[in-house]
Amino acid sequence: MLLLTLRGTPTLYCGDEIGMRQGAIAPDQVRDPFEKNVPGIGVGRDGCRTPMQWNATAGAGFSTAAPWLPLADDYSSENVANLDFDASSILSLYKALIALRRKLPQLVKGAYQPVAAQGDILLYRRDGEGEAVVVALNLGGEPVSVASSSIGVGREILLSTFLDRGGEQVQGTLDLRGNEGVILGRSAQAG
Question: pTM of the entire structure?
Answer without folding.
Answer: 0.89
